[in-house]
Amino acid sequence: MSLPEQQTRVALARYPDGVPVEDDFAMDTSPLPQPGDGQILVRNRYLSLDPFLRGVISGRQIYAQKVEPGDTMPGNTVSEVLESKQPGINAGDFVVCDGGWQQYAAVPAETARKVDPDADLLSLRVGVLGMPGLTAYAGLLRLAQPAVGDTVVVSAASGPVGSMVGQIARIKGCRVVGIAGSEQKCRWVVEELGFDACINYKTEDLDEKLGEHCPDKVNIYFDNVGGDTLAVVLRHLALGARVTLCGMITQYNKSETPPGPNLGPVIGARAIMKGLVVYDHYDLWEQFSTDAGHWIRNGDIRHREVRSDGLGKAAEAFCRLMRGENFGKELVVIE
Ligand code: NAP
């Protein structure tokens, strides 16, 4: 197969000031990457847009190298292997790797995870069957350990992480209450995903509605947002509650870290709060893939993707995500 000498990519043009805008990114061409020893050359098929990228750009994400203006934007991809300089991975295999906002990438084979090439499930490998799904699975089942009858509350409930948390909790026999930012999101979460209730925190009084929907209080809070929502939910914790701190998206676009919530209620509830970093739970990949694959195939778990066509749409889609206007997993289909 003959490969082009140049490829299309999207680079960081300048550091965003607050919420990113499209002009913070620039599309251009670059030479096709060449794989070195131990590397694979891949063609990226699906690019995942994730909130953590905002922290990578600002240098706050401690697990990734800071992006400088001019650098290709990083990002998880589902990619097809074109050439391999590592035994065990072959041309034609599909992998999830950090392929970035570009058509082709040369990446260390050890950082790529081989996935089943089943075309129906391929894009989900960076969504509900990928890192966001594993985040939900590990943060709920391993860290918070739900029991039948527990009341589980989850914020950003319609996103890939939140929607998986709620549906897994439902499968495990819990009462599930979502928190989301629009009427449409709340309706989907209840009517399609089977949550018991969903509170629109933008139009409803969260404190009052939590009292109404969680009469026995909250046994597990899975926090994807931090900020005021976290502060309010803490006031509703049941005795022995578990709080999984997964994400703080309300502060990703801020240059200063805001003051924290009052933690007094955590004492009263004798609650346990645990910070979640999904990379600590990669030992669960196989178990998670088996369970989640089964739930998705038999219709117990539903999901929603927002697909944008082409790298030219990547910046627009990422900015939408960081404004909180996405409704489902943001993906770019790379031509
Ligand atoms: P997501 O839910 O689609 O994230 C975007 C959503 O966050 C928005 O649609 C919006 O939903 C909500 N949001 C609330 N306040 C916001 C604000 N101020 N600005 C922008 N959005 C806001 O994405 P996800 O991939 O499922 O991730 C959910 C959370 O998990 C994120 O915080 C992410 O960083 C975190 N995460 C953590 C780990 C880990 O290892 N700890 C791994 C993966 C993801 P509403 O309209 O419903 O408010």
Describe this structure in words.
Helices cover 25% and strands 26% of the residues. The protein contains nine helices and 15 strands. The structure holds NADP nicotinamide-adenine-dinucleotide phosphate.
Helix content: 25-40%
Instruction: Indicate the low-confidence ranges by residue numbers.
Output: none
| Major β-sheet annotation | 7 strands, mixed
Q: Radius of gyration, Cα only, in angstroms?
A: 20 Å
Q: What is the average per-residue confidence, as pLDDT, rounded to a whole number?
A: 96
Structure at a glance:
The protein is α/β, with parallel strands linked by helices.
Core attributes:
335 residues, alpha/beta, 7-stranded mixed beta sheet, 9 helices, 15 strands, binds NADP nicotinamide-adenine-dinucleotide phosphate
Please describe the topology of this protein.
Blueprint: E1 6-12, E2 25-31, E3 39-48, H1 52-58, E4 77-84, E5 94-97, E6 104-108, E7 113-115, H2 131-144, E8 151-155, H3 160-171, E9 175-180, H4 183-191, E10 197-200, H5 206-213, E11 218-223, H6 227-234, E12 237-245, H7 264-268, E13 272-275, H8 285-297, E14 305-309, H9 314-322, E15 329-333
Parallel strand pairs: 8-9, 8-11, 9-10, 11-12, 12-13, 14-15
Antiparallel strand pairs: 1-2, 3-4, 3-6, 3-15, 4-5, 5-7
Helix pairs in contact: 2-3, 2-8
This protein binds NADP nicotinamide-adenine-dinucleotide phosphate.
Residues 50-52, 132, 135, 156, 158-162, 180-182, 185, 224-225, 246-247, 249-250, 276-278, 321-322, 324, 326 line the site of NADP nicotinamide-adenine-dinucleotide phosphate.
